[in-house]
Structure formats: structure tokens, C-alpha cells
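Hi everyone, sorry if this is the wrong subforum. Our group has a chain we'd like a structural model of before ordering constructs, and none of us has done structure prediction before. Sequence below.
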Amino acid sequence: MLYRINQVNWPEYSYCPEASVEVSNDHEYLHLCYNVRGEQLRAVTTEDQGPVWEDSCVEFFCQVPGEKHYMNFECNCIGAMVASRRLGRAEDVCPLSAEEMQQIERHCSFPHEQIEERDGVFSWSVELRIPLSLIFRNSAPVFPQELKVNFYKCGDKTKKPHFVSWNPIKLTKPDFHCPQFFGKIVLK
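Answer:
Right subforum, don't worry. Here is the predicted structure as C-alpha cells:
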């Protein structure tokens, strides 16, 4: 299923690059294929669990229905990634271990090399294969068919900061850590 990431939630951050994500799954992995076309390109963070959201970044937040915790998977255009299980932005944050991070397959259209910000129009893609066992930790081996999610495109420290989502967020300032605004997707 293809989802367009085009909700501008905060008028002061009106820049909206073209972004979409195609979602599929098999019995072991959730597959996310992001395609982005926009102005500026930045990838200063090269290490996992660093501030990738400051770069040209795509994000996937998800929550298993009935659970209090949610997960965030944030990846810049060169494959550096942040992932954790949490109750809120700063509440009960449990970053995934290095071993768990290695289980997430990443394929990017740019090599894993630092990119100082560049002006111009750039198209890029990020493909992620996330083991379902990381998401449905308490449900394996039978995974639920439904997942609460939101998809994002951001670039906090780019020349045109932006905070775009798939499902609308009704808050006064940018914040993606808000499961109350997650939408639902059905896994096959």
C-alpha cells in the first residue's frame, strides 16, 4: 500500500517535499520503501542513535493496538538510524541495542557517507526491512493484523526546516511523538 506524506501541520513550516512510503510485509518483516524529492540534501549524522532527524530524514512511528509503548524508527538519506521503544518523547525511552539495530536491513540510494547540506533538487530513496519480532515483541509468533502508525518526512536543521506527516497532527508546535494522532494500517 502506498501512503503519501503530505500533511503540513504547522503553517510556519510550510515547505513540503514530495514524499511517499510503500508498505508491505511478509511473515518475518515489515517493508518500508520511502521515495523523496525535495530541495536541499543533508546527512551530517553517520552513526546509529545520533540526531538523524536534523538531516534529510524519513520516520516511521508505530504502536501495537492495546499497548502503551510505541516505537520510532528514524532514518536519514544515507541509512544512519535512530530506533527505540518509548512511552513519550522523553518518557521511558529504551533505545534498541546495537544487535537489534543490525537486524534492520537498510538500502539507500546514497552511499553511507556524510553529506554537508547541498542546495538543488534531489530525489532519493530509503528501503527498510524491520523484523516484525522487534515491533510485536509481546505478540510473537502470531502477529496482529492491525498497527497504529504515522509516517513522517523532516529535516530539522536543513535550510528549509519541515515537519510533514501522513496522518494530521493537531498540536500547536511540531511534535511527532504523539500516538493519539496515529492512523491505522492493516498488515496482510
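For your construct planning: The chain has one domain: 2-186. Residues 2-186 form a domain with the Immunoglobulin-like fold (CATH 2.60.40.1190).
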